[in-house]
């Protein structure tokens, strides 16, 4: 049973102060933001970074095949709009060399950034034609920070492809296995991405298999758009 006496938490995505306790179990409390509809875990329950890193290492091999498929589908999507060589960023998860070679075989360049395994911060100082985020959004402890960064890393007209399990039924959250992974700390609904896209002025598309496509319009003023979230 949910204990409604628990103190409200500030939403780590839109910074709304009115996020109330939504779910409790023996390991952590979850909160629901009434503005952006993000469900997020109590920061006090976040795993220590060394423990989190070990868990990620155990999942590397498991995610390589779907990551490659996701990346190549994104490449094909981008090629429908441009025949020029593209520069992309694989953000938050490292793909194996054969995946990078597959991208390069299409004449494109793929850089990779991961805070644990490929922390080249110089890559966060340029812009890209496409960005891939495969199963990383659910790991963001401070999703406002990452969302703002990704918006700045996109060139005008560029695509951000996100693969994350969408929360479609709040009433079924207690039975949702996706929440049981303690490295998963942020859970998004369709309305969450709709809120973000509207605030930033981005084009938003929901596709099959928990794929979210976000396009930064040509001439979009990211500094102006992101400041609207700062004031929330």
From TrEMBL:
InterPro entries assigned: SAM-dependent_MTases_sf
Enumerate the Gene3D superfamilies for this protein: Vaccinia Virus protein VP39
Q: Name one Pfam family in it.
A: Methyltransf_23
Listed name of the protein: Uncharacterized protein
């Amino acid at each position: 049973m949910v204990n409604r006496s628990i103190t409200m938490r500030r939403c780590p995505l839109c910074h709304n102060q009115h996020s109330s306790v939504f779910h409790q179990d023996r390991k952590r409390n979850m909160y629901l933001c009434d503005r952006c509809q993000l469900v997020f875990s109590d920061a006090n329950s976040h795993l220590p970074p060394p423990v989190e890193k070990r868990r990620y290492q155990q999942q590397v091999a498991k995610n390589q095949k779907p990551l490659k498929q996701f990346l190549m589908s994104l490449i094909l999507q981008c090629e429908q709009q441009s025949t020029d060589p593209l520069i992309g960023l694989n953000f938050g998860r490292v793909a194996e060399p054969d995946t990078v070679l597959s991208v390069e075989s299409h004449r494109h360049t793929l850089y990779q950034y991961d805070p644990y395994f490929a922390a080249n911060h110089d890559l966060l100082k340029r812009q890209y034609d496409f960005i891939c985020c495969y199963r990383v959004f659910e790991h963001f402890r401070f999703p406002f920070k990452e969302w703002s960064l990704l918006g700045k890393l996109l060139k005008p007209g560029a695509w951000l492809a996100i693969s994350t399990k969408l929360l479609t039924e709040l009433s079924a959250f207690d039975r949702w296995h996706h929440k049981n992974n303690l490295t998963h700390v942020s859970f998004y609904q369709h309305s969450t991405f709709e809120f973000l896209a509207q605030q930033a002025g981005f084009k938003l598309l929901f596709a099959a298999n928990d794929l979210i496509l976000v396009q930064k319009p040509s001439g979009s003023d990211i500094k102006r758009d992101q400041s609207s979230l700062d004031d929330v």
